[in-house]
Design goal:
Blueprint: E1 7-11, H1 16-31, E2 39-43, H2 49-63, H3 69-78, E3 79-83, H4 89-99, E4 105-109, H5 116-125, E5 133-137, H6 144-157, E6 163-166, H7 173-184, E7 197-205, H8 214-239, H9 248-259, E8 269-274, E9 292-297, E10 309-314, E11 321-328, E12 346-352, E13 355-364, E14 372-382, H10 389-398, H11 408-418, E15 428-431
Helix pairs in contact: 1-2, 1-3, 1-10, 5-6, 6-11, 8-9, 8-11, 9-11
Bound molecules: 6-O-phosphono-beta-D-glucopyranose.
The site of 6-O-phosphono-beta-D-glucopyranose has 6 residues, from helix 8.
Length: about 475
């Protein structure tokens, strides 16, 4: 029996992540009747509790769909605030007093990874790590070597089962729905392998640019920002073997899936940068950081040998959408003489902006000729995620449920896959904003397929 957390502490409480994601999630938890523990913000801002509350209210107004008066009242009754330097033992003594005897605090580090060691040490020396859980955010390292160092640092102060690494993609409804559909149906399993699947594509497209986060983005780029984490989680969920059950077996299989992914080489990758990126605030005039990346990867397993997985992520693309397409092979014999046999079968998982699970099939057109058309059977469509990923993940972490958190070995495997393509291992090609990235991306598709560009979905008639 895992203990329920009895206090939520978040470091970096006056920062961007707290403002955009954490306060709105807290409001949502309150609305769902799920937040009953003290919430302690820690930051070095010279603030008092009243200023902190004002920040929470502003966050809800800007990012939480408005401050709900009832929820805000409850939130204010739970909020506490500790102001101080993370390097100073007094800050942690004050935190200990504020924890007021809590036995299982959950410490959320919404701070740069360079501060993890300092905060970990402060928590340990003040014994605030006793019986505690720690929640950390990506970026989890900048390379394989730095991820290993970071893991070692955290492990000095917390056991692995007390460390919850957030990849918010794992908290998304459609990603959990993808896992569910894979293992709650028997009809997919016989098809889910190299005998039937021709290729797989994943596109994560965003119309937004870097939104004033130029300085952050210069340190990251699309490979570190999303390919290494969100995309690798999708690959793991799509390709893993059936787990023995929920809980740790789910993490075992996701981690194992990544061990079988072949390490990328420069020949597998095309990097792009949207025209105008170098004029963004905080971006170097000669920056070679990528805002787009396309990659082709292979999985050396019995199930997936020889099946290409094509990935694309980018900013300033024509639509905002994340979509997975599993393309099945053509029928082995061409029975009908129709001029256009169309696209073979596929399964489409749309991860955002809405949840869609659809299967593409050929059906005969009504009429004399034996000719067909492609249609999609929609198994599930929902306009949006009912629960924000952060709310779901914070509730899971509070309950000690780690199914949808990244484990140390999995994070390191994901870095191992991208390590050789980081930095300037490949040239960066310019692309015009509003296009699907540099044309060179087409050359990665070596099996005769073309990129499936996601389109805006028609309105859901049942919504
Ligand atoms: C974040 C990246 O992890 O994910 C951002 O840092 C990106 O650059 C974001 O925009 C996308 O998340 P979502 O949930 O909007 O698809």
């Amino acid at each position: 029996m895992v203990d329920q957390a009895d206090a939520l502490v978040f470091f970096g409480a006056t920062g961007d992540l707290a403002y955009k994601k954490i306060f709105p999630s807290l409001q949502s938890m309150i609305r769902h009747g799920r937040l009953n523990m003290p919430v302690i913000g820690v930051a070095k801002q010279g603030w008092n509790l009243e200023q902190f509350k004002a920040r929470a209210k502003a966050s809800l107004e800007e990012h939480g769909g408005g401050a709900d008066p009832e929820a805000l009242k409850k939130l204010f009754s739970l909020l506490k605030y500790v102001d101080g330097d993370y390097k100073s033992p007094e800050t942690f003594q004050e935190l200990r007093r504020t924890l007021d005897g809590a036995k299982h605090p959950m410490h959320y580090l919404a701070i740069p990874p360079s501060m993890f060691a300092t905060v970990g040490e402060g928590l340990a020396k003040s014994q605030c790590n006793q019986g505690a859980r720690i929640v950390v955010e990506k970026p989890f390292g900048r390379s394989l070597a730095s991820a290993r160092e970071l893991n070692a640092t955290l492990r000095e102060y917390f056991p692995e089962d007390a460390i919850f690494r957030i990849d918010h993609y794992l908290g998304k409804e459609p990603v959990q729905s993808l896992l569910y559909s894979r293992f709650a149906n028997a009809v997919l399993e016989p098809l889910w392998n190299r005998n039937y699947v021709g290729s797989v594509q994943i596109t994560m497209a965003e119309t937004i640019g870097v939104l004033g986060r130029g300085r952050f983005y210069e340190e990251a780029g699309a490979i570190r920002d999303v390919l290494q984490n969100h995309m690798m989680q999708l690959i793991a969920c799509l390709t893993m073997e059936p787990p023995a059950g929920e809980g740790e077996p789910l993490r075992d299989e996701r981690a194992k899936a990544l061990t079988l992914v072949r390490t990328l080489t420069p020949a597998d990758v095309v990097r792009g940068q949207f025209a105008g990126y170098r004029e963004e605030k905080g971006v170097a005039k000669d920056s070679t950081v990528e805002t787009f990346v396309a990659a082709r990867l292979f999985i050396d397993s019995w199930r997936w040998a020889g099946v290409p997985f094509y990935l694309r992520v980018g900013k300033c693309l024509p639509v905002s959408c994340t979509e997975i397409i599993v393309d099945f092979k053509k029928p082995p014999q061409r029975v009908f003489r129709e001029a256009n046999a169309g696209r073979p079968n596929h399964i489409r998982f749309r991860v955002s902006p809405e949840v869609v699970l659809a299967m593409g099939v050929r059906v005969k057109k009504i009429g004399e000729a034996l000719e067909g058309t492609s249609v999609e059977l929609i198994a599930q469509r929902h306009p949006h995620d009912e629960m924000e990923p952060y709310e779901r993940l914070l509730l899971d972490a509070a309950a000690g449920k780690s199914d949808f958190f990244a484990r140390e070995d999995q994070v390191e495997e994901a870095w191992r896959i991208v390590d050789p393509i980081l930095g300037n291992a490949t040239p960066v090609e310019s692309y015009a904003p509003g296009t699907w990235g540099p044309t060179q991306g087409q050359s990665l598709l070596t099996d005769g397929s073309t990129w499936h560009d996601p389109r805006d979905e028609p309105e859901d008639p049942d919504a």
